[in-house]
Amino acid sequence: MGLPLEHAVALDAHDSKLADVLRRLHVDVLIHTAGPFQGQDYSVARAAVEAGCHYIDLADGRQFVAGVGALSALASVRIGISSGARAPGLATVRGVFSYGGKRIRSWQDGAWVDAYGWLNLTRHRFPPPLGSRWLGSCDVPDLELFPERYPTVRTVTFQAGFASDLGHLVVWTLAGLVKAGILADMNTFASPLNRLSRWMEPIVSDKGGMFVKLEGEGKDGAPLRIDWNLIAEKNHGPHIPCGAAIALARKIGSGASLPRGAMPCVGLLTVDEFLEPLRDLSISEKVA
Predict the structure, then answer these.
(1) pLDDT digit string (tens) for 231-287?
(2) Among residues 17, 14, 33, which one has the least CA distance to residue 25?
């Protein structure tokens, strides 16, 4: 028998005996959320494999997600997801600050070129009620996975930003100082800026969102453009990365047929399956 529902137990991700603990607890599905995943190894995933349980994580580390296939001969199921830029946890802040001002390999016009973390400043207009937000370049798994999955794609970009224009421009400035060699990295500022963002939360917009913009040719050869947006209100945005993990865990529990091996989550869920766990939140989908 496994643990009863809603039973909590403390686990140490660095415990060399973690697999034994998982076996003793009769864990069926392990969801690993303890970032940052940038620079993290696969010890938790390996422990899950050794314990014979399914493994899912919320990793946003590009190398971590892209390299998980190395476990394919052992593992069962794995999922990785890019977190939202306004996630409240300090570990997430440290993760996204780790590449600020540093070189990022980006697929542009059919070739790999250099971008820089949290630079390449752009202004994007989201659907109401968000409006315009500043965005900067991020180093995420999508940049590696999409060119591999879609061989004909010419350009893949990923940018993120903050609800506070001032907050985003502070991050952009720090990234510029790193690129210029004045600062070694941005993580010195992760903790104080994280505290400051918490203090400012009551006066900052509680609305966030994401977009996926597709441009190319339709099946008829005519130009085609699709804008997919997800709008979150009432500070529900940080819950979005959990949607895929919940949906996939439910799918495993239902006995659905899924591919075996270690892999990113690309293609394992439909949009509707991903959104279903988020239906009770103030999150809406807009497609144009």
Answers:
(1) 888 889 888 888 889 999 999 899 888 888 888 888 899 999 999 999 999 999 998
(2) 17
pLDDT tens-digit series, residues 181-190: 999 999 999 9
Q: Are 126 and 232 spatial neighbours (Cβ–Cβ below 8 Å)? A: no
Residues 118 and 173: their CA atoms lie apart, in Å, by 9
CA 139 to chain centre: 10
Q: How far is CA 13 from CA 21, 33, 252, in A?
A: 11, 10, 23
Cβ partners under 8 Å of residue 116, min gap 6: 101, 102, 103, 104, 137, 175, 179
- Cis peptide upstream of residue 36 (ω within 30 degrees of 0): yes
| 173-183 core/surface letters (b: 16 or more CB in 10 A; e: else) | ebbbebbeeeb
Rounded to two decimals, the pTM is: 0.73
